[in-house]
TrEMBL record:
InterPro entries: MTMR12-like_C, MTMR12_PTP, Myotubularin, Myotubularin-like_Pase_dom, PH-like_dom_sf, Prot-tyrosine_phosphatase-like. GO terms for biological process: phosphatidylinositol dephosphorylation. GO terms for cellular component: membrane; sarcomere; sarcoplasmic reticulum. The keyword Lyase does not apply. Belongs to the protein-tyrosine phosphatase family. Non-receptor class myotubularin subfamily. It comes from Herpetotheres cachinnans (Laughing falcon). SUPFAM superfamilies: (Phosphotyrosine protein) phosphatases II, PH domain-like. Keywords: Cytoplasm, Sarcoplasmic reticulum. Residues 173-611 form the Myotubularin phosphatase domain. This is Myotubularin-related protein 12. CDD domains: PTP-MTMR12. It is found in: Cytoplasm, Myofibril, Sarcomere; Sarcoplasmic reticulum. The keyword Cytoplasm applies. It comes from the Eukaryota. The lineage of its organism: Eukaryota, Metazoa, Chordata, Craniata, Vertebrata.
Length: 717
């Protein structure tokens, strides 16, 4: 039996962007609401355009209930075609993956999204012809391989007016001046130079137009092997040591070619090992970090934990949460990547050694490690404009293959790997461990990860600067010809109005260090450390597992001992690394100096806001970090209002940020996964076997059977 709202009486039409075309539609479609385990749903129209799949109901036409954190491009019931992960049809209560041509059409459609939303549409009451059109249309436009020029990116660029505010403060690194400016900022211009050798892409189509190399490297050397074997500069430390990356030579070659390449590399190494350069340490990331295939496999398993169909499935998986989480290996990969970044930081900071990262193309794990090192060592990269400039430099201009790694064209699953998502996951670990050190919030990182799948921005839809440049020129869809004017994702006004953009900025960001107040800073550091420790609940909860805030003291103790034992036995870090790591953590934190993440045991956490935001059962009513932030913001507002009274002349210039987040005032009604889950919805526990609830509720039973829940050593290498 299906409980529905009254069917739509008035016609609801989709809001189309410039260049967006309606391809197919179906009426009398029911969208299930899964949170209460019943078959409640809303009646509406399901449409497919060349940009998105959208469900339109009577609420779509009214602006009464609009949240203040609203995306202007992608609505709550919109799925961009690039955001579709998998589509299943339900035939006689059995799920079947839908691909290619369909012989039989399903009575129910389930769409799993890359941002982890799950949509259930009932087509039982829809006309047969409309079902055929909408199902085959959705499957075709979201799952079949397509040409680059068929992306909505080009339709939008040719039809949309160019009225955005341009570059804002983000350095785009597409000019020689941008690179020279970065060299000057990091004081790397004494030993390194920006080169124009690749103008016209005469060296390589994979390299950017402009890049930086050691002064001693000649143009002939760069040209010799299409840029391979050349150390390319990423960043310079305050002590002169630099972080470099290199594209490695192919491994399978004949002896004479290999010998020539070896002689060439030896010459390069000797040149940059002499003064004024520091000592050089090389690190082949393909052997010291997991492969891209391992990363893809781990993430595929990991995301399955959050693509929940209903409450029953949620509670069934919650019983085995720790063993399921451990078996994905995603958190362990995160830990290994952070550990590698700390090792590189130690070489640069303490040993004053240049570090050369080597990878086959130097555009995947090199991007992750070099970006992380800069976030940890350079406070400029922890500002919003600095972080965006870093992404431009290392990823967009640096040649990371977003098109292939995100599989935007559905050409090959073999190339797909969530490399950029891995970086954001690692940066989130730092943001949640040291909030005052970052000008941006975890919400910023979450919407940045969502923007990977919004094809109106060129930022994440090309494999290289060459591919972007060669596709920028051309005729637009209308009569006028000329180059495409692509948008950049860094213009946040395209997606969010000023009130919503306020959620991207951290009001508690420690803007400037105050050396004369070292005692106060020490106290704040201790308080921060205490906040990161597990808290003991005063009242026993009926829910077991990760989703009860990870606050059970017993679980934390067992977890810490197990993971600690694993780290100390099978992956013992070198003494110098451990000494550097422990020494730094024993001192007060300088939020504008070096930041080292805590990587032992349970310190590596799940990015709850991104992965749990669509699961009502995982939300805390009036709790979580948002409740703490709301109280602090109230206090800040009170202090600033007192200051206004003391200085009425400047009253209008004070406190822009705090007043721009009015939704935080009533924190008791907010969900812990705010601003994505705005209000807590009550979830009804489904009927489960008695034995399952006994597992969920019995405290004593956990102690006796801790292996079943918490065996984190099982399956570990």
């Amino acid at each position: 039996e299906i409980y529905i709202k009254e069917p739509i009486e008035k016609e609801v039409n989709p809001h189309l962007l410039p260049g967006e075309l309606l391809l197919c539609e179906a009426n009398t479609v029911y969208k299930y609401m899964q949170e209460d385990g019943s078959n409640r749903g809303t009646c509406g129209k399901l449409v497919c355009t060349n940009f998105k799949i959208a469900f339109l109901d009577d609420d779509s036409a009214s602006d009464d209930n609009e949240p203040q954190f609203k995306n202007k491009i992608v609505g709550e019931n919109d799925i961009t075609l690039q955001c579709v992960d998998q589509i299943y049809g339900v035939y006689d209560e059995k799920k079947k993956l839908l691909t290619g041509q369909l012989r039989k059409y399903p009575e129910k459609l389930i769409i799993y999204c890359k941002d982890l939303r799950v949509f259930h549409f009932c087509l039982r009451y829809t006309k047969e012809e409309e079902v055929k059109r909408i199902v085959s249309g959705i499957v075709h436009h979201s799952q079949t391989p397509k040409l680059l020029k068929r992306l909505f990116l080009f339709s939008y660029a040719s039809a949309a007016p160019n009225n955005t505010d341009g570059r804002n403060q983000t350095v785009m690194f597409d000019t020689l001046e941008d690179w020279r400016g970065e060299l000057e900022r990091t004081k790397g211009n004494v030993k390194y130079k920006a080169v124009t050798t690749n103008e016209g892409y005469r060296v390589s189509e994979k390299l950017p137009l402009y890049f930086v190399v050691p002064i001693c490297v000649s143009e002939e050397s760069i040209l010799k092997y299409e840029g391979r074997g050349i150390p390319i500069w990423c960043w310079s430390c305050h002590n002169g040591a630099a972080l470099l990356k290199m594209s490695a030579f192919p491994k399978e070659q004949d002896d004479s070619t290999s010998q020539m390449q070896k002689v060439f590399l030896d010459g390069i190494y000797k040149t940059i090992s002499k003064p004024p350069y520091e000592l050089l340490k090389t690190d082949d990331l393909s052997s010291s970090l997991p492969s891209l295939q391992d990363i893809q496999t781990a993430y595929t398993r990991f995301k399955q934990l959050f693509l929940i169909d209903n409450s029953t499935e949620f509670w069934a998986t919650d019983v085995k949460w720790f063993s399921l989480l451990e078996s994905t290996n995603w958190l362990e990969i995160t830990r290994r990547v952070l550990k590698k970044a700390i090792e590189v930081a130690e070489c640069l900071e303490r040993q004053h050694t240049n570090v050369l990262l080597i990878e086959e193309s130097a555009t995947d794990l090199c991007c992750v490690i070099s970006s992380l090192v800069q976030v940890m060592m350079d406070s400029y990269s922890r500002t919003k404009s600095g972080f965006q400039s870093l992404i431009q430099k290392e990823w967009v201009i640096g040649g990371h293959g977003f098109l292939d790694r995100c599989n935007h064209l559905h050409k090959s699953d073999k190339e797909e790997a969530p490399v950029f998502l891995l970086l954001l996951n690692c940066v989130w670990q730092l943001v949640q461990q040291y909030p005052p050190a970052f000008e941006f919030t975890e919400t910023y990182l979450t919407v940045l990860s969502d923007s990977l799948y919004v094809p109106i921005f060129s930022t994440f839809f090309f494999n290289s600067q060459h591919q972007r440049d060669t596709n920028t020129s051309g005729e637009s869809l209308k009569t006028q010809s000329g180059p495409f004017r692509f948008l950049t994702v860094w213009d946040w006004s395209v997606q969010f109005d000023p009130k919503a953009q306020a959620f991207l900025n951290n009001p508690l960001y420690a803007e400037k260090p105050k050396p004369d107040k070292s005692q106060r800073k020490t106290a704040r550091f201790k308080h921060q450390r205490q906040l990161s420790l597990p808290l003991t609940q005063t009242k026993s909860s009926t829910k077991r597992g990760f989703f009860r805030e990870e606050t059970d003291h017993l679980i934390k103790n067992i977890l810490g001992k197990r993971i600690g034992k694993f780290i100390n036995s099978s992956d013992e870090p070198p003494n110098s690394f451990r000494e550097f790591y422990d020494s730094w953590h024993s001192k007060p934190v300088d939020y504008h100096g070096l930041l080292l993440p805590r990587i032992d045991g349970p310190e590596i956490k799940v990015w709850a806001q991104r992965y749990l935001r669509w699961i009502p059962e995982a939300q805390l009513h009036g709790g979580g970090t948002i409740a703490t932030a709301a109280k602090i913001l109230d206090l800040m507002e009170e202090v600033q209002s007192l200051q206004v009274k003391m200085d009425e002349e400047h009253s209008q210039a004070i406190s822009r940020d705090v007043h721009s987040v009015p939704m935080l005032r009533n924190s008791a009604r907010l969900s812990s996964l705010f601003p994505f889950a705005l209000l807590q919805r009550q979830s009804i526990k489904p009927a489960l076997p008695t034995s399952t609830w006994k597992d969920l509720e019995d405290e004593d039973d956990l102690v006796k059977r801790d292996d079943e829940f918490l065996d984190l050593s099982a399956g570990m290498p």
